[in-house]
Design a protein that fits this description.
The chain is 65% helix and 0% strand. It has helices at 17-32, 48-73, 101-117, 120-147, 151-156, 162-194, 198-204. α2 runs antiparallel to α3 and α3 (101-117) packs antiparallel against α4 (120-147). It is globular.
């Protein structure tokens, strides 16, 4: 695999600069984008009080996870998916349990904010962010595997201890629950959009 030219202009994206640009735009949409649309008639979030509390907890937990990931990386920290030239492979702190705690923290913050403001549009932005972060993680891990000889072992490591197997099982259950919830939200939004202003729809048909 060819290594990116270190001194290439940023706009060429040799080190993943455009991934950062898109991620910043998606984060801006999540936290500052429009939350309502006058032409959309969507139901309110169920259990608003519970959503507010759970959202605040997720938001705070995401901040803690994000900050802990930044603190552990230290000199290896970079906003780009391409690692620094003198970076070292970090396996301590939150990296003992998740490979990308900063991305995970950002996703938790986005989902927490979605529940806190209880906006279906914000949920769509958050789902788009989750999909994009997954794509960015895959690109970053290919670069990390080239940079660090032990990264593939770190990624695939299974010590056989009950603690690790239990964490992995929780992750599988969590991923399945997120996938199912996302499918339900998309189906609900589709049904609502089909019922959107029938008089306006007939006027344009």
């Amino acid at each position: 695999m060819n290594r990116p030219t270190l001194h290439a202009p940023w706009w060429k994206g040799k080190r993943g600069e455009w991934y950062v640009v898109v991620q910043v735009l998606l984060l801006a949409l999540v936290f500052f984008g429009p939350r309502r649309h006058a032409g959309l008639s969507l139901p309110a979030f169920p259990w608003p009080g519970v959503c507010t509390i759970v959202g605040a907890i997720l938001l705070l937990s995401g901040v803690i996870l994000l900050v802990s990931g930044i603190a552990v990386l230290r000199s290896s920290l970079t906003p780009l998916p391409y690692p620094r030239e003198k970076a070292t492979l970090v396996e301590t702190g939150p990296y003992r349990f998740v490979r990308h705690p900063m991305y995970g923290g950002g996703v938790m913050m986005a989902l927490g904010w979605t529940l806190y403001v209880q906006s279906w549009l914000t949920l769509l932005y958050s789902l788009a962010l989750i999909v994009f972060v997954d794509v960015k993680c895959r690109r970053e891990e290919r670069w990390l595997a080239v940079k660090f000889a032990g990264y593939d072992d770190y990624r695939r490591r299974e010590s056989g201890t009950f603690r690790v197997e239990r964490v992995q099982a929780r992750h599988r259950i969590r991923d399945a629950a997120i996938d199912q919830a996302a499918r339900r939200c998309i189906a609900l939004l589709y049904r609502q959009l089909r019922r959107w202003h029938p008089r306006q729809r007939s006027a344009y048909s």
